[in-house]
Amino acid sequence: MAPKIPGAVHDILGVGLRFTYRDLSTDPFPKHSPIQFLDKHLDENYVLKRVISLPGTELLTELLDFANELLESVEEFPRTHFPAITIHSRSASNEDLNADTVAKYYQESISEGCCWLASHLFLHSKATRWCNDLSWKQVDGLEPRSLPLHKARMERRLAEEHFVSRKWSLVLDRNSPSNVWKDSLTSDEQKTWRYLSDCSQRTQLAVWEIFSCTVASDHLFESIRKYAGKSTEERPEFPWKRPGTKEFRIQHPPYKPYSDATQTPWTLPDESLSLGASQRSRASNCDEGTSGPKSSTQPTVIRPLDSLNRGNIEIEDISVWVEDYLQRAWARAVDLDATFIILHRGTTEIICIRHRESQTLFVSEIIDTSVNYYGKLQTAIYAAIVKDQAQRQEMWEKRHLPKAEMTEKKRSFNHVEPDNSYMRKRRRSSSLSLKTEKDAPSTNLTLKERCRKLDLAIVVLNYSLHRSSIPSIFIRRKFNGRDLLAPLSVQSSYPLESCLRIDVRSRIGGGASGHAHRAMMYIGSDNEHFQDVVVKVGRDDYSRQSMRHELQIYEYLARAKVESVPHCYGLFEDIESKHSPYILVTSYAGKSLADLQRKEYIANNGTVTVPKIQQYVTIELGYSLQRPNSFDCSPAFLRGLAEIHAAGIHHRDLRPPNIVIDKNGKVSIIDFDIARLYVTGRQRKHERKRMLKLLSGQEVDYDRTSFRGGHYCDDCSPGTHHAASQWDSEEELVRARSEPP
After folding, report:
1. Is the pTM of this model over 0.70?
2. Residue 279: count of CB within 10 angstroms of its CB
3. Domain closes at, from 545, 569, 587
4. Residues comprising the binding site for ATP?
5. Which of 22-31, 476-485, 586-595 has the lowest mean pLDDT?
6. Distance (Å, rounded) from C-alpha 384 to C-alpha 258?
7. CA–CA gap between residue 535 and residue 528 (Å, rounded)
8. Confidence of residue 625 (pLDDT cuts 50, 70, 90)
């Protein structure tokens, strides 16, 4: 006999959102595509192929039945007070229609109670007190970026942030006191917790796309349903947008896709899940997440586009972007390896289910969030998401025996070493490994000069889930004056020997202005000689401004013959859209101080010192003997900083990730996106003092700085510049050079 359901639980199950708004005559929405650069280079085995509508209310009925099963499985509900949530009606005005407002209202009104209920029903059904291990919250930890000064770009940025928010998701709450009650777990719940043990507070369990509650978002939802509801004859393969480069194709062996859960609370149409026999046989001999060596053909002539039509037309109809918004959401789900994609706009909602094997997105009917079973539906969705996560992890572990050498776990390709590396392990083939500097062929001294004279760059991604089938074409941007870029000029074709080839192999970091990737840069068809480079891919208009400024700083330091910075090969722009991000290419200068200190930082409870660089020296004892020799490179840090100051540059962002050391012990300082072309004596002393503190381990912060953390230092804050004499900079440089190596 099922126990009596407490009144507070009834209130959560029967709640519906009461979000009202009035139509606006001026309904802002972004007039440019949301697709990002990396989305175009997703591996062919992971891109979206089909979008199919689920019949009627079948999905909703199955999820509600799943919630009823969970309720019936509880023998007795806790007698302690349930943290009931009060639902208030919200009347939207012109100022609070944006996507973040909708997300906060959803969080405050219904998500907390549903998290408590789903966690107790699925993870702690025998507990004598209410337990909650789930949280629906903002998971994007990026600091808010300043708005661009250009009026048109500012309006576009505001329209994008107003219309859609991608910062919210369901995560496991590791700070929950529920661990106290784990003794009361059933055998199934203990098994579920074991498979969820690698999830962290940053592990996004599903994809939420929160839209503003406006007429434009309503039209977008209707267009999505119309697109998914096409008949089989009218439904072509989903037009996944890729780069527009002509006559250049790269063939990759297929990955074997990761498996979908089998025992799910929902069912999908069997006829929609069928794959061609050829597609199944191609990947049948591969392990999950692996592939063989790639094969590609290089044309002798590169044709970027038929014409320089850069796709800049502003679209006045939001339905045009249906495919683009679906592509962006699918790419996020691939990144997180998520099954559920929830599209929410306050008054209505669409539930999408991603099927990995058939590369199909199943779309539900549009759900009215004011119905009296909406709380039960959300509770079922949260529990189904957790169940799917645990079952897929269980399936993977059963197919892969635990081996000591297989310690690399599946991780998001948007993070270098993320805390949410919870998923199944991915074994990479040798074709995806980056050659080390030791294995690299020797290059002549003129290779850098040759690279700087070439204006066209062919960019190919070849790491993790990004394997380009079509490369992107970037053109070099040059300054026509002090601060202005020369007009873009693209030819109809280029010989391959006059092009740079940039093969991106891994991601090594990220910041406010963009993501840094390690790559190899070739010239033409020469595969023997290459440069080990770092490619910084910008985010948005803000990054375009900062990367133009950073290029100016690098060129200024190059003219001043400063050696403590990487060599800059130039700034390049994607020719397909004038709003596409820039890429800044610099030489690879080694590992960052943050990477070298990270293990020691954790082992010594936050106290670290400068690492000693190890080299091999040859000792003559009648025969050659090599033994490691370690030396302290602390003076090199100070000499490099003094050299930059002597050139008149104020860095303003000295942090461990921005200081790199190569295998020979050479120190370089990077990331000049907020640097200034003026430095006072007081500012030099302040940065030197900060460097000394950083080297001694007194101040090591990998996430915040005195600038980006919001607390401005008097020496680094914008304000009135004070005159600095040339004698101060020379004294600083002489003092640094006089220190022992």
Report:
1. yes
2. 15
3. 587
4. 536
5. 22-31
6. 19
7. 20
8. very low
